[in-house]
Write a structure and sequence with these properties.
With 241 residues, this protein is α+β, with helices and mostly antiparallel strands. The chain has 2 domains: 138 residues, no CATH class; 97 residues, no CATH class. Helix content is 44%, strand content 12%. It contains 11 helices and 8 strands. Strands 1-4 form a two-stranded antiparallel sheet. Strand 7 and strand 8 form a beta hairpin. The longest helix has 25 residues. 22% of the residues are buried. It binds iron/sulfur cluster. Iron/sulfur cluster binds next to loops.
Length: 241
C-alpha cells in the first residue's frame, strides 16, 4: 500500500509534466526553445484580456515606443517601429522570454501564451508573417481609461518623442547647435529618470512596471542615435559610439 502511494507520488508529476510538454510540442515542434530564446513576443489586440485579467502581469512587460529601433522578426532588419510594441521581458539581460523554463524546455504560461507564440511555427512561418504587423496592442489600448497615469504617459511620450530626440542628436555634430542640444538631451534624460521614480513612489506602483508605462529608459535607448550615456555622480556624459 505504502509503495503504491509512493509510486503515485513520484510518477504522477512526471506524467503530468510529459503531457504538458507534449501539449507545447505539437506535431512538429521539437521543443528546442529557439523561438523563446530569441525574445518574448509582442502583443496584439487579441491578447488584451491576458494582461487585463492579470494572467500575464504587467510587471513582466516592457514597451518599445514609437520611433524606437527594433528588430523586425519577419524581415530580420532593424527598423524604427511605427507604433508602440508591448512585449514580454527577457530573463535578466538576455533575450530569453521570462516565461521560458530552460531546464524543462516549457512555457510557464502555455495555456495563456500570446497569439504570436501560438502562430509561430518554425517549420511554416506563413501564419506568423500574416499576423505579425497586424493589430498591435499599444499602451493606449490598455491604459487610456486610467486618467491620471495615462495623462502622464502621454506627456512623457510627447516630450521624449524619438523623432525629436533624433533631431537633437543630429545637432550634436554642429558646433553652433551643440551646446543647446546637449542641454536639451540632458534635461530629457533627467525627466525620463525622474518620472519613473515619481510614479513608482507617489502612485505606489511596482518599479518593474515602469518600462511598460514609459518604455525602456532613454539612458539605454540613446545608443540607437550612436550615443552612449554614461553617468558620473549626478552628471550625464554623452559618448559617441
Ligand atoms: S510566452 Fe511562452 S511560448 Fe511565448 S516566447 Fe515566452 S516561453 Fe515561449
Amino acid at each position: 500500500m505504502e509503495k503504491t502511494i509512493e509510486t503515485k507520488r513520484t510518477i504522477l508529476p512526471e506524467i503530468k509534466s510529459k503531457i504538458y510538454r507534449n501539449k507545447m510540442a505539437g506535431p512538429n515542434c521539437k521543443r528546442c526553445g529557439t523561438c523563446c530564446r530569441k525574445g518574448g513576443p509582442s502583443f496584439h489586440l487579441e491578447d488584451k484580456g491576458l494582461i487585463e485579467t492579470g494572467k500575464i502581469p504587467s510587471k513582466y512587460l516592457y514597451t518599445i515606443r514609437k520611433g524606437e529601433l527594433a528588430l523586425d522578426n519577419v524581415t530580420g532588419r532593424l527598423a524604427p517601429v511605427k507604433t508602440d510594441l508591448v512585449k514580454i521581458r527577457g530573463i535578466g539581460i538576455t533575450w530569453t522570454c521570462i516565461f521560458y523554463d530552460p531546464i524543462q524546455y516549457i512555457c510557464k504560461i502555455y495555456d495563456h501564451r500570446p497569439v504570436e507564440c501560438r502562430a509561430l511555427k518554425c517549420w511554416d512561418t506563413r501564419e506568423i508573417e500574416r499576423i505579425y504587423n497586424e493589430e498591435r496592442l499599444t499602451r493606449k489600448d490598455l491604459l487610456e481609461g486610467f486618467g491620471g497615469i495615462w495623462d502622464i504617459i502621454e506627456t512623457h511620450q510627447k516630450r521624449c518623442d524619438y523623432h525629436k530626440i533624433g533631431v537633437l542628436a543630429a545637432r550634436l555634430k554642429s558646433e553652433e547647435a551643440q551646446k543647446d542640444a546637449l542641454a536639451a538631451i540632458d534635461e530629457l534624460l533627467r525627466y525620463d529618470k525622474e518620472i519613473r521614480s515619481l510614479v513608482a513612489e507617489k502612485a505606489g506602483m511596482d518599479p518593474d512596471m515602469m518600462d511598460f508605462l514609459f518604455g525602456r529608459p532613454l539612458t539605454e535607448t540613446m545608443v540607437m542615435f550612436r550615443i552612449k550615456v554614461e553617468m558620473t555622480g549626478e552628471k550625464y556624459r554623452l559618448v559617441p559610439v
